[in-house]
Design brief:
heterodimer; A: 512 residues; alpha/beta; FAD/NAD(P)-binding domain; eight-stranded mixed beta sheet; 11 helices; 22 strands; 24% strand; B: 114 residues; mainly alpha; two-stranded antiparallel ribbon; 5 helices; 58% helix; globular
């Protein structure tokens, strides 16, 4: 069936399928691929086209986005709802850098010091699906093999910090356009899959009883409107758009779809990197490594071979009442002796560390990441403003608690102390608490807005991704993550998509 | 007294070099800082001293090497550095997280005549 431009269909067309997937991004495509060539008729409804364009992207404009954190000035990020997404076939995969990393085992744990933490599954439970997601992306599985690479030894500084492996796939628009083009199109070259482009879903229509989805409404920009019906629906439109569509579909239930307990849009979690640029006077975020062995595992600009970031492990998180934390290293030129105050001081620190630790000191730049704790006040809401299709725009209040900043500061300090105590280096982190938000850089990772929990009072979807209280609506993507860890979410959302497909196949009469 | 401290420090750091192949040789006391003292070391030392008013070179030498400078001093300093980090005795200088013992070594360098 391949691709159909919804703008060319007669007005008021009705699309029918066994399974409708709202959103043709990484999650939606991955689920469709699981059904490709089978008997289940699948329709993907993608709001964008094959190429990015401004008119489609305008639909992502928000009505304000602000980062809030104690001791820090509010930081406006009004362009974030637009610029952190891609309304196009392939979704954010079009602009993804291809970085793959599973969540750590600790990320799945119920951590008493982090309210609302804990997944209804363990890393071990998800491992077979991570493996299949890795196969899909043609990357090595995360089975520990990389840890044995003799040419890429690990930095061993105790049990509180581990080497968390990272792999890069070619299947991303930011890495290999031709490969990604195949990824986002070839799956549909089978009779049972149809991909409708420029098909913007504007309403999820519930039955009068509000217990199942009966149809979805579709609008094309400056074009016709349609409807689509199926036995089952999967909402896979992204971490912001999933919440937006559920909240905006409020004709049957005033609170929106799946929102009986006022959870949809709450618990927004994002990833940011924290780094400090060097100045003439002050070194930036950096460290000296005096490990006495090659550090190519961490300083790996060509992204080949074993590659890791330094991550905090569960015992340290617990002791520090902190969440996950990573240090990502990158090569840095050694400061010359005549580059002024900063360079001279950095040289002095390195020379003394070298003598005390007994190994050459290698300077590396670094940035930090710290887990954003689940927070009901960090949320997406609907604004009065509307887009060209009449959909309310979103307002984002990206909110940190004092515990978030405390955890970052404590873990950064502990990392520096651990590195020094192990005689493996020294750490430079010239950031003050009140400037953390100003110096952070936001990623395109949107998580938590339709969180997963077995208890409907604590989660929008159940552990299988089905919306509580609805028979036939599932949600895929990072919006279901209860906690966000630090790992780039794509690999995990693909693993969950594969898992959901396995769950749905018997219900749809398909072989697993 | 200051000159003695300087000589002792040279010897101690030369011993450090002896422990690290490829670095300064123990017989050569001059490469205290792999050559001349980096100007940055003096500024770091002065900053540490600003937090510890009243300390002079002799007091620092007693603190860093209470048994006098010897080839064993390096290992003792390493242990002190590790203990400092483990027990939170940390000196922050423009973002660098250093042990208090390292701060004192920088300070002794700053107090010693060139």
């Amino acid at each position: 069936m391949a691709f159909i431009d919804a703008r060319t269909l007669p007005a008021d067309s009705r699309i029918e399928a066994d399974l409708i997937i709202i959103g043709g991004g990484m999650a939606g495509i991955t689920i469709a691929r699981q059904f490709a060539g089978g008997t289940v008729k699948v329709a993907i409804l993608e709001g964008g086209g094959r190429d990015l364009n401004d008119a489609a992207q305008d639909l992502y404009d928000g009505a304000g986005a602000t980062v809030h954190a104690p001791d820090n000035a509010d930081r406006p990020l009004d362009d974030y709802p637009r610029n952190s997404r891609a309304r196009v076939l392939g979704g954010s995969g079009m602009v993804w850098g291809g970085k793959c990393r599973p969540l750590d085992a600790a990320d799945f744990a119920k951590r008493d010091w982090i309210p609302h933490s804990g997944w209804p599954m363990s890393r071990q439970d998800l491992q077979p699906f991570y493996d299949r997601a890795c196969d899909l992306l043609e990357i090595p599985r995360f089975d520990g093999t990389d840890a044995k690479d003799p040419d890429r030894p690990m930095l061993e500084i105790g049990a509180d910090f581990i080497a968390a492996p990272v792999v890069f796939t070619k299947y991303s628009g930011g890495v290999d356009e031709a490969a990604f083009e195949r990824f986002r199109t070839a799956f549909a070259d089978v009779p049972n899959i149809a991909v409708y482009l420029h098909a913007n879903v504007t309403r999820i229509g519930l039955s009068k009883a509000g217990d199942r989805v009966e149809q979805v409404d579709i609008a094309c920009l400056d074009g016709p409107r349609h409807t689509a019906r199926a036995g089952r629906y999967i909402l896979a439109a992204g971490g912001i758009e999933n919440a937006r569509l559920l909240l905006a579909s409020n004709d049957v239930r005033p609170e929106g779809v799946g929102n009986r307990h006022d959870l949809v849009g709450r618990f927004f979690q994002g990833h940011v990197t924290y780094s400090v640029d060097e100045t003439a006077q002050v070194e930036g975020s950096a460290l000296y490594l005096t490990a006495g062995k090659p550090m190519g595992r961490y300083l790996n600009p060509d992204r080949r071979g074993a590659h890791s970031v330094i991550a905090s492990a569960l015992p340290g998180q617990q002791r520090l009442a902190a969440g996950n934390f990573t240090v990502t290293l990158y090569p840095s030129a050694p400061p010359g002796p005549k580059v002024g105050a900063r360079g001279e001081e950095t040289v002095a620190v390195g020379q003394l560390a070298q003598r005390l630790d007994g190994a050459p000191a290698v300077l590396a730049g670094c940035f930090l990441m710290a887990e954003h704790f689940p927070n009901p006040d960090s949320r997406i809401t609907l604004a009065p403003e509307r887009d060209a299709l009449g959909m309310p725009r979103v307002k984002l209040d990206w909110t940190y608690s004092a515990a978030d900043l405390d955890g970052l500061e404590r873990t950064a300090a502990h990392f520096g102390d651990t590195l020094g105590a192990a005689a493996k280096g020294r750490f430079c982190w010239p950031a003050e608490r009140e400037e953390l938000i100003a110096l952070s850089s936001a990623s395109r990772h949107h998580m938590g807005t339709t969180r997963m929990h077995a208890d409907p009072r604590q989660g929008v979807v159940d552990p299988d991704g089905r919306v509580h209280g609805l028979d036939n609506l599932h949600i895929a993507g990072s919006s279901v993550f209860p906690t966000s860890g630090i790992a780039n979410p794509t690999l995990t959302l693909l693993a969950l998509a594969v898992r959901m497909s396995d769950h749905l196949k018997p219900q749809l009469g398909a072989a697993r | 007294m200051t000159a003695i401290a300087r000589r002792d420090l040279l010897a101690a750091l030369a011993a450090l070099g002896a422990m690290a192949p490829g670095l300064a040789r123990a017989a050569d006391p001059s490469p205290l800082w792999a050559g001349s003292v980096p100007p940055g070391a003096l500024r770091i030392g002065q900053a540490w001293l600003a937090d510890h008013p009243g300390l002079d070179a002799a007091a620092l030498a007693r603190r860093l090497a209470p048994d006098g400078w010897s080839s064993a001093t390096l290992e003792k300093l390493r242990l002190r550095v590790a203990t400092d980090f483990r027990q939170g005795r940390v000196f922050r200088y423009r973002g660098w997280r250093l042990s208090d013992t390292e701060g004192a070594l920088f300070a002794l360098t700053a107090l010693s005549p060139s």
